Amino acid sequence: MPAFCAYGDGGCLVSAPAELSGLFCRGAVQQQQQQRKRALVAASAVAAAAAAECVRAAKKRRQQQLPSLDALPDECLFEILRRVPGGRGRGASACVSRRWLALLSSIRASELAQAVAAAAASTRALPDLNEEFVMEEEDKDGETPADPCVERVLEGKGATDVRLAAMGVVAGSRGGLEKLAVRGSHPTRGVTDQGLSAVARGSPNLSSLALWDVPLITDAGLAEVAAGCPSLERLDISRCPLITDKGLIAVAQGCPNLVSLTIEACSGVANEGLRAIGSFCKKLQAVNIKNCVHVGDQGISSLVCSATASLAKIRLQGLTITDASLAVIGYYGKAVTDLTLARLATVGERGFWVMANAAGLQNLRCMSVTSCPGVTDLALSSIAKFCPSLKQLYLRKCGHVSDAGLTAFTESAKVFENLQLEECNRVTLVGILSFLRNCSQKFRALSLVKCMGIKDICSAPAQLPLCRSLRFLTIKDCPGFTDASLAVVGMICPQLEQVDLSGLGEVTDNGLLPLIQSSEAGLIKVDLSGCKNITDVAVSSLVKAHGKSLKKVSLEGCSKITDASLFIIAENCSELAELDLSNCMVSDYGVAILSSASHLKLRVLSLSGCSKVTQKSVPFLGNLGKSLEGLNLQFCNMIGNHNIASLEKKLWWCDILA
User: Fold this and answer.
1) CB atoms within 10 A of CB 70
2) How far apart are CA 616 and CA 613, in angstroms?
3) Torsion sign across C-alpha atoms 415, 417, 423, 428
4) DSSP characters for 66-130?
5) To 10 degrees, the CA torsion angle through 83, 85, 89, 94?
6) Given pLDDT bands bounded at 50, 70 and 90, which one contains residue 197?
7) For the chain, counts of helices (H) and of strands (E)
8) d(CA 446, CA 454)
9) Which residues contact 329 (CB under 8 A, 6 or more apart)?
């Protein structure tokens, strides 16, 4: 009879041959074992998941049960942080989170001092068991000793509210900042009123504040400074478009000790702010107003009138003021010693004439005028007559000043010492000679830069002046000035000590030799940069005649200077401290000569662009001595980076440019 086996879930009887019945039975058993395994695995997975969930829930319950200061409202956390003792403790607390930093930066120095005093009073009767472990840097009250001058600078991308707040918190534990400069701002997270307020609250002794290119600072930030920093003395605001008269009025009312004010390119500042500064800041000594389009005669006049007793330095540039402002300066500027006027296009000749004739500038010593069409010969003559203390005059791009004005000026200026002319093209060598003939015995310095009228004259005057008082002469970038003119200058100025002839490409040895030979006092500084026609002959004559007095010689761009000049310098110069040989034709041999001169104590040596200086010079450069402070090897491509590195290691104290 055939064997029957139950197989399948439906319980059907399936007929199978005898030889297959055993096989079917074993398969069924294996299948049942696999199903049991799968069931066990699934059950264990469910159990593991449930256990993990229980663990997470338990951790969550434990975390919820743990006490946390972050759960407190800002008011409570503020009171706690206000009582944190010591600068280190407050600094560490500021690192916890931005919230803690913000709260710490909102604590005023006065509130902090009150909390520390209260804590000290409450614990004075109790012994301090940890007294022996107190750090030496902190005093008995847990405060870090005050730094006599805390100065900080934030620049570019590093200028953010977070850094400013952290800086205020840390410095606040040492009495706060005294000087702060913010130059630029982060493009997306720049300095705002919040950061400035943090510094103001923690730095009641802030005396100097500079804000340059900080576009997000507004009147609210300045108001916080005015409220928290009554000792502010110097305020410098540049390119801050959101600052207006309202902010300046707050500063004027809150900072009566202000002595210096600089405002540049602030389009929101107008007349009312300057009027308030003049009314409230009676100690104001210096004011600098540049490129403020809304500042006019009313603001400048009110400021000068109110601060007439103390205002000593005035600088006005790029303003739309008229003759009226200069008239007020001339009448009320009784304490003014330095006056700078630049790019005042709407001020005419009458304004300068009235300013001088008002006779109020009796103490004026230094005057600088740039690109002002109102400066004429008449104005110059009036300034000399009615400003008896004037010692220094700088005229730049004053195209209406001529030889006649210089002659009239020198006849009245009795204590005048220094004249600088730049791009005054109507002034000629004839006018300069007339000026030197009549100048006072105190006249010491003459500078002529880029004056196209300074050129050779056909015939020299019958009587050449002799100016023995002149010590400093600069004739720079005047292309018409050649050997003939230089020889004349040498004859009339025998007491020169410093000579700057840079950029005179037409001057040769023939013009320089008479000046060298006629100098009686002994030249100390000589600058011949760009005098491409000067050779070793002139340098040899200069060094032999003045080697004992020479301290600085610049021969940059003098392509005809060779090792022969270095041999003479090494042999005759005992006081030489600075030598510039950039782009000269000196070689390794010349460097070796300098190195061998034991009496030569160079502090600065420049060999930039000297193509003949190679790696062979490295041992000699390394033997120049401890006196060497600066070495310029830029564009000396034959030396090599490896040799530069070894030289830097040997001359570790020296600043090497390569």
Assistant:
1) 9
2) 8
3) positive
4) S--GGGS-HHHHHHHHHT--SHHHHHHHHTT-HHHHHHHHTS-HHHHHHHHHHHHHHTTTS--TT
5) 30
6) confident
7) 23, 22
8) 13
9) 300, 304, 314, 336, 339, 355, 360, 361
200-209 tens-digit pLDDT: 888 888 999 9
Instruction: Give Cβ neighbours of residue 652 (< 8 Å, ≥ 6 apart).
Output: none
Output Rg (C-alpha) for the chain, integer angstroms. Answer: 40
Q: In this prediction, what percent of the chain has a pLDDT beyond 70?
A: 76
Distance between CA atoms of residues 221 and 169, nearest Å: 17
Integer angstrom CA distances of residue 350 from 73, 220, 409, 585:
67, 42, 17, 55
Hunting for tokens 């264990």 — which residue is that? 44
3-class SS of residue 477: coil
For Cα atoms 271, 273, 275, give the angle at the middle one, nearest 5 degrees: 70
pTM, full prediction:
0.79
| Apex 485 CA angle, 483 and 487, nearest 5 | 70
Cα 1 from Cα 7, distance rounded (Å)? 19
Q: CA-to-CA distance for 186 and 300, rounded, in angstroms?
A: 34
Determine the Cα–Cα distance for residues 286 and 112; give it in Å rounded to an integer.
Answer: 35
Strands 179-183 and 525-527, by their bridges, are: unpaired
Across the range 118-143, mean pLDDT stands at 46
Between CA 335 and CA 316 the distance in angstroms is 17
Measured CA to CA in angstroms, residue 625 lies from 20, 573, 590, 601, 602 at distances of: 107, 16, 17, 7, 8
Residues 6+ apart with CB under 8 A from 127: none
What does the chain come to in residues? 658
